[in-house]
């Protein structure tokens, strides 16, 4: 039986800016929605105003590039588009 590795999500957040709670809240939202479809969601403390969300090596959100912070709807849709494009997110897609 072939074992395929589940996607790993990382959220890098700026400790100087006190964005830990925002990062943890988004991690909880992703785990609640995608649960068993993810291999892990990790929080990576950084500095310099960083707030990035990656799936593996793919950058799906970057605070400076994307103009602020994502809401749960937007980040769930971006994650879904990478790991399971055919998946219906129910009310999040409406």
UniProtKB/TrEMBL annotation:
Entry-linked SUPFAM superfamilies: Thioredoxin-like
A Pfam entry, by short name: Rdx
Coiled coil: none
Matches recorded under InterPro entries: Selenoprotein_Rdx-typ, Thioredoxin-like_sf
Magnesium listed as a keyword: no
Keywords: Redox-active center
Entry superkingdom: Bacteria
Record has Cell cycle as a keyword: no
PANTHER family found in the cross-reference section: SELENOPROTEIN DOMAIN PROTEIN (AFU_ORTHOLOGUE AFUA_1G05220) (PTHR36417)
Name the record gives this protein: SelT/selW/selH selenoprotein
Source species: Haematobacter massiliensis
């Amino acid at each position: 039986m072939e074992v395929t590795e589940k996607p790993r999500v990382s959220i890098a957040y700026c400790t100087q800016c006190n964005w830990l709670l925002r990062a943890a809240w988004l991690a909880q939202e992703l785990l609640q929605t995608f649960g068993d479809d993810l291999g892990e969601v990790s929080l990576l403390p950084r500095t310099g105003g960083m707030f990035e969300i990656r799936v593996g090596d793919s950058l799906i959100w970057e605070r400076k590039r994307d103009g602020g912070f994502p809401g749960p709807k937007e980040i769930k849709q971006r994650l879904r588009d990478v790991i399971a494009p055919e998946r219906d997110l129910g009310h999040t897609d409406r």
